[in-house]
Each structure stands twice: as structure tokens, then as C-alpha cells.
Amino acid sequence: MTKRLAAAVLLLGLAPAPGSWSSGPALPVARSEVAVAVLADRVYVIGGYANGNVDQSLVEVFDVDRGTWREETPLPRGLNHIAAVGYRGKVYTFGGFAAQNSAAVADADVFDPSTNRWTPIAPLPRALGSVSVAALGDEIHLVGGRDVHSVQTHLVYDPATNRYSSRAPLPVGRDHMGLVAYDGRLYAIGGRIDTPANNTAYVDIYDPRSNAWRSGAAMPTARSGMAVALYHGKIFAIGGEQGGMTSAFTNNEAYGPETNRWGEYAPLPEGRHGTGAAVVDGRLYVPAGAPVPGGGRQSDTLLIFTL
């Protein structure tokens, strides 16, 4: 910021939004509609659109300590809009689409870095893509998603028994939604009902003790396809898309579970959707994604947010 601009900001009684963005090493392959998961100091970028195909099996891993990318064992088959989560030293994947944002599957697999192998686990009870996933306690929760239409489905996968069970459904069925676990609860953020023309700003909070959902303060900007992560005790919702836009959202908004309030943070340097976020060693990483709505362009950037 120049001295003149800084002075103008002070005169207006404004302050720049907190936080800053920087760039890390580019991904080897430009991609979007990927799944993102984190294990220790490694960020996994899984499947998606790349190289003109919408059914990539590609898995790339960023080693934060070394600052390098490497290609990992590919998925059993190529998919987009997969749900992925790191849990107790392994990466679990659920569902996805075999075609462009359609043709949902029930696939579920687990990757063990110690053997560099993917192993099938019990398939989803129904085929779903764009499911939102988060680990809570000893279980993995799978919420929302879409087959032909957005669903309210709330499943819990138990890795110890390799079984699914059902929990209280999402109040409003939606997909392309964020899901974060914090202090024993789940927070379902935004998402869409069937299409990006029907984005939502909902915040739904699930308490497993009562098996019930309640509403939180709505997101300031209705969005879907955001990167969502817990960072410095707040739930960040970054980027996203909406029908009719010429570029993806740059919005970076964060929800405080303790205050039930949203705040604005430094916007993305360029719009992104169709990606995820991973927090490692005090930094928030947003790899790949698309700078424009839909699947027409992919990015190879690694954007890094710090507070």
C-alpha cells in the first residue's frame, strides 16, 4: 500500500481486512473440482478436472516442510467432486461424479501412506457426489451432496467397523457445501440447492449429543464451491461460485463459533472455486481450483493465507 493510499484509508476511518496472501510452488498439473485433505505436514489434492478430462485419478501431494510437490498413487478410478478427509494417518474418500458434475457413484476408499495403496471400504449406501465430510471424534460424518438433486442425507462412517449409520438429516438439502468440526459440533456452511443459481448462506450447527441441528448466523455472501477450513478458531469460507458470474468469488469471510458472527478478511488475489483448504503449521493452503465459474478453466496455483 502506498503512503498516499494508507493516509486516505486512515482519513476514512477504514482499515485493511486482516491477513495476507502469498504464493507457494505451483502444482505440476492445473486442476479444479478437486478434493483436498491434510495429513500431518502434507496436503493431498485428489481427482477432479485436468488435462481436458473430468475424471482424473491424479493424486498430488504437497510436502509443506520441503516445499515440494510429488505425484502419489492414483485413485482406483478417476472422479470429480469427491469427499476426502485425513483421519488417523490415512486419507478416506467417498462418492464423487464420474461425468462432469453428474453420474454420482458410491465408491469409498482409504489411502495408507505407509503402503502407498488405496483399498476399497464399504461403499456409500447411495451414490452421491459433492458430499461434505468432516471427522468428529471417532467417526467420519458425510453430509448433503447430490445424486440428481441435492439431498439432506447425514451419514456417519465408523472406520473401526467399516459401517455406516444415519443421523439427523440436514435441515435443507444442498451440495457444494462446507463442513467443519469444532468443539464437538459440526458446522455446515453455504452450498447450493441443485444449481449455482440457487446458492445459500445457511449456517447449520449439528450437536451429536442431541442428534439435532440448529441455525447459526447466515454467511454474508451466499456461495457454493468454497474452500472451507478451521483456522485460528474461526471457520473460513474462501472463494466460491454463483451462476451468471464472469469470475469466481474472491470473498474471504470467517465465522466465529463462539460469537456467532462473521467477519471479513483479506480477499483472494484471484477468484477460486472447486477446491478446498488445508491448515498446516499456522498457514492456510488453497491449492488449484478454477478462476471462473464452471469447468472451463483450471489453475495450478497454491495460494497461502496467514494471519
Overview of the molecule:
With 307 residues, the chain is mainly β. 3% of the residues lie in helices and 41% in strands. The strands form eight sheets. A four-stranded antiparallel beta sheet has the order 1-28-27-26, with no helix packed on it. A four-stranded antiparallel beta sheet has the order 2-3-4-5, with no helix packed on it. Strands 6-7-10-11 form a four-stranded antiparallel beta sheet, with no helix packed on it. A hairpin with a 2-residue loop joins β6 (83-87) and β7 (90-94). The protein starts with a helix and ends with a strand.
Write the layout of secondary structure elements.
Blueprint (H helix, E strand, L loop, with lengths): L2 H9 L8 E4 L11 E5 L2 E5 L12 E5 L4 E5 L10 E5 L2 E5 L2 E3 L2 E3 L3 E5 L4 E4 L11 E5 L2 E5 L10 E5 L4 E4 L11 E5 L2 E5 L2 E2 L1 E5 L3 E5 L4 E4 L11 E5 L2 E5 L13 E5 L4 E4 L13 E3 L2 E5 L14 E5 L1
Antiparallel strand pairs: 1-28, 2-3, 3-4, 4-5, 6-7, 7-10, 8-9, 10-11, 12-13, 13-14, 14-15, 16-17, 17-20, 18-19, 20-21, 22-23, 23-24, 24-25, 26-27, 27-28
User: Number of helix segments?
Assistant: 1
Rg computed from alpha carbons, rounded to a whole number of angstroms:
18 Å
Tell the overall outline: globular
User: Approximately what portion of the residues adopt beta-strand conformation?
Assistant: 35-45%
SSE pattern:
HEEEEEEEEEEEEEEEEEEEEEEEEEEEE
| Poorly predicted residue ranges | 1-11
How helix-rich are the residues, as a percent range?
Answer: under 10%
CATH-wise, what's the superfamily? Kelch-type beta propeller
